[in-house]
Design goal:
By secondary structure, this protein is of the alpha+beta class. Helix content is 28%, strand content 20%. It contains 8 helices and 14 strands. The protein has helices at 28-43, 56-70, 74-77, 131-156, 164-168, 243-248, 266-269, 302-313; strands at 7-9, 46-50, 89-91, 108-112, 180-186, 199-202, 208-213, 219-223, 226-229, 236-241, 258-260, 273-280, 287-288, 300-301. Strands 1-2-10-7-12-5-4-3 form an 8-stranded mixed sheet. A 4-stranded antiparallel sheet has the order 6-11-8-9, with no helix packed on it.
Amino acid sequence: MACEIPVVDFQNFDSASFDEEKLDETNPDIKKLSQEILSAFTTVGFVYIKNHGLPETEIRQVFQVGEKFFKLPTNEKSKYSKPPTSNHGYVAVGVETTDPSKPTDFKEAFNITEPFNDEIPWPDAGDCSDFRFTMNRFFDLCKNLSHKIMYLISLGLKLKDRKLFHRTHKNIGTPENKTTLRLLYYPVMTQLRAGQVRLGEHSDYGTITLLFQDQIGGLEVRGGEGFIPAYPIEGTILVNIGDLLQRWTNDRLMSTKHRVVVPREEIRRLSPRQSAAFFVHPDDDAIIQCLDGSKHYPPITSLEYLLQRLNATYL
């Protein structure tokens, strides 16, 4: 496996006016971009993209609003706890175990899966009055960018059906799709248990993930014979493949394991860390079967696969 995460420039891919119907697939810039994306996802499984079209002001706003929520008293945050029947809501420190060989993850989170559902609780008191508006707007921006990235993947794979990923992800943001915008907050770590990490080694579950990091660092990606740092690079988004897309492509694309460790530098260890991840999943009823026609992996619906993985994560 390659030991460096490449940086791919979307400068020549006009994301603002992206239209699958009008895109010239013979354009050498588009072909080159799809090949660069495919190369990254068939080797290290991760890629940084720059000139991606998401305003930095929007990303900063998400971090600022998220921080206001996570700094609320625990009893206030608990009012929005994720129920067992839903993936929307607050997740407290110690609830999740992504690596069973390690102590529980030292992080808290807020999941957003149904951004336009008025019947689920949303933080709205005091400094969190703009929480829902900010997250819903960012959810839509991430959704649009995800469709563009998946389209480039379809070009790189030379799929006959260029609209496959668009069609199987058409319900993002509705109850029929489990795509999730997840805000993550890693508290200050003054006392560590043996083997404690902020987020245990794991791979993501779905199609692709868009990851936004602050400058604290700690993310590591498995590469070669060990882990390599995935340092924050200003102006970029880190994108990686999920397990379901690896399965879908019969292991041609790589869903690489990664983790968040405690920084060695004391100033970073004693600082909280924030990130935001947009976990893209196919529609619940989408049947995932190998695109090459093989039977290496039996067909499974997107929802069935996700439930299997979630059941292994939550205590």
